[in-house]
């Protein structure tokens, strides 16, 4: 079942790239006491994600943070090495590149995208959330395109 507005986000151990390699991080720690914009996408280095989705957040990061957002998080069902390399290639220094390598968070919030029929495996749907102190305030899920989960749409909602 998909998480609903007003629900507490699950506390799941994921990975971010640290100085010595992938480091564990709890989603509860990323969300506690903070206003967070989290956007998720099917895969790093894929065309729509690389040409449209992530760049919108890179360009608008300062404007989003000026609206009282403490952190902007990009999540994908990829490993920390891939997320780190992708973030660096896109100049995404202002964004936390969060690796959901086995889809634990994605599954816990009910936003899996099954692409096994085209050999991509289980991925994340394309969506964006506004999270306030661990509670879901807004959830926009894109079935096609990037309109509902774009940085511009989230910026307008803040």
From TrEMBL:
Keywords: Antioxidant, Oxidoreductase, Peroxidase, Redox-active center
EC nos: 1.11.1.27
Residues of the active site: 49
UniProt GO cellular component terms: cytoplasm
Domain spans labelled Thioredoxin: 3-158
Source domain of life: Bacteria
Keyword Oxidoreductase: yes
PROSITE patterns (alphabetical): THIOREDOXIN_2 (PS51352)
Catalysed transformations (reactions): a hydroperoxide + 2 glutathione = an alcohol + glutathione disulfide + H2O
UniProt GO MF annotations: thioredoxin peroxidase activity
CDD domains: PRX5_like
Biological processes annotated in GO: cell redox homeostasis; cellular response to oxidative stress; hydrogen peroxide catabolic process
Functional description taken from the UniProt entry: Thiol-specific peroxidase that catalyzes the reduction of hydrogen peroxide and organic hydroperoxides to water and alcohols, respectively. Plays a role in cell protection against oxidative stress by detoxifying peroxides.
Similarity comment text for this entry: Belongs to the peroxiredoxin family. Prx5 subfamily.
Protein name as catalogued: Glutathione-dependent peroxiredoxin
Organism: Marinospirillum alkaliphilum DSM 21637
